[in-house]
Design a protein that fits this description.
Blueprint lengths: L4 H17 L1 H7 L7 E6 L6 H4 L7 E6 L15 H12 L4 E7 L3 H9 L9 H5 L10 H6 L2 H17 L3 H8 L4 E8 L4 E6 L4 E4 L7
The chain binds zinc ion.
Length: about 210
């Protein structure tokens, strides 16, 4: 089957535009990558990671999954795509930053909220996957500062950060000052990003001017 016309046209624009202008960069990247950060984002089509951070190919190692979740370290026989990506980014690429990027109107988190009163359908992939959020600790400070919907999304970011620290390789690098963890939340409508200050235990907008 042919690709949808819009994608084929986009590919042609990429070849004649961005690729033609940046060919040297692409040829160099073919030799290897050294991204400055890993980003764990949601599959949601509205969360365009490279647009939000205005990055180029090679800058970010991006893992996208439903609701931007990181499960706890589980060395079993399961097929752990997210854990494999985290392991590779941290131990092979030595990324100095790992970012969990939540977002507004997250369908995955909303689905989990709706099943809190009942039981998730764990016979389906999505229900089983969302059990990563089990035991979700929605912070009172987040509930005071933001909507309940947002507070749940922020709790998901907090939980994934905690789960990242269940990976020994990551915890060791963080303790040695070789790796920083970041929790962010992108608001689709306003295009703004909240960042978690772990010392203050609260989320605040990223500064938009000057050097942060
Ligand atoms: Zn989402």
């Amino acid at each position: 089957m042919p690709l949808p016309k819009s994608l084929l046209e986009g590919y042609r624009r990429f070849r004649s535009g961005r690729y033609a202008q940046d060919e040297a960069r692409y040829r160099k990247l073919a030799g290897g990558q050294s991204p400055g950060a890993m980003v764990i984002a949601c599959c949601d089509s509205r969360v365009d990671v490279s647009a939000i951070f205005d990055t180029d190919p090679g800058d970010l190692f991006v893992m996208r999954n439903v609701a931007n979740l990181v499960p706890t370290f589980e060395p079993d026989s399961g097929l752990h795509a997210t854990s494999a990506a985290v392991e590779y980014a941290v131990t092979a690429l030595n990324v100095p930053n790992v970012i969990v990027l939540g977002h507004s109107q997250c369908g995955g988190v909303a689905a989990y909220r709706q099943t809190l009163k009942g039981k998730a359908d764990e016979t389906r992939f999505i229900g089983r996957w969302l059990t990563v959020l089990d035991g979700l600790d929605v912070h009172k400070g987040d509930l005071d500062a933001f909507s309940e919907e947002t507070a749940f999304e922020l709790a998901g970011v907090r939980q994934s950060l905690a789960n990242l620290r269940s990976f020994d390789a990551l915890k060791e690098r963080e303790a040695a000052g070789l790796l920083k963890l970041h929790g962010l939340h992108f608001d689709i409508g306003s295009g703004t990003v909240l960042a978690l200050d772990e010392k203050a235990d609260s989320f605040a907008p990223l500064p938009e001017d000057g050097c942060a």
